[in-house]
Write a structure and sequence with these properties.
12% strand; mainly alpha; two-stranded antiparallel sheet; 169 residues
Length: 169
């Protein structure tokens, strides 16, 4: 019986045995190495490189002065009735300039740190690519042996399933 509670139709063809099905697809030859860029570890390493570049940009920006402009405008009156009368306007303007005069050594150290971290992330990226190539080469090398083992395992499991099905009939 199927899940909806009705018996299976009599004209339903019998299923193919497991050992007759090609469950494992072979890896086609001549795949481009650009497929490695879809791996999560490679994408993570690329994102870490982007972060390192952004950190260097932030460290360089710390050498420049920062300028901040703040302003406000409103109406001021001691009574509610005089809030919108002429002469009750109030405003303020506050410019701020910050110069990194005494933080020069710290800024240089931060820039050096960002560059070193970028070098580390580049090395990690290269290592991720090398690991990806090694894993693919290992998989291709053992694919034939693994495919034979998987086929033998599938045939054995199919025999167990077929025996269980024949016992229930």
């Amino acid at each position: 019986m199927l899940l909806h509670g009705e018996p299976m139709p009599d004209d339903l063809p019998a299923g193919a045995p497991l050992n007759g099905q090609d469950l494992l697809a072979d890896i086609p030859a001549e795949l481009p190495s650009a497929l490695l860029t879809r791996r999560l570890d490679i994408m993570e390493a690329e994102q870490n490189l982007r972060v390192a570049n952004a950190d260097i940009g932030a460290a360089r920006a710390a050498f420049f002065p920062s300028i901040s402009l703040t302003g406000s405008f409103g109406s001021l009156s001691p009574t509610l009735g005089g809030l919108f009368k002429p002469g009750s306007a109030a405003w303020s303007f506050a410019p701020t300039i910050t110069l990194p005069i005494f933080a020069g050594g710290q800024n240089i150290a931060n820039l050096d740190l960002a560059n070193i971290q970028k070098d580390i992330r580049i090395a990690q990226y290269e290592k991720s690519i090398q690991v990806a190539f090694r894993e693919v080469a290992d998989e291709l090398r053992f694919a034939d042996r693994g495919a034979r083992t998987r086929r033998e395992r599938a045939v054995a499991e199919a025999g167990v399933v077929d025996a269980a099905v024949s016992e229930r009939r």
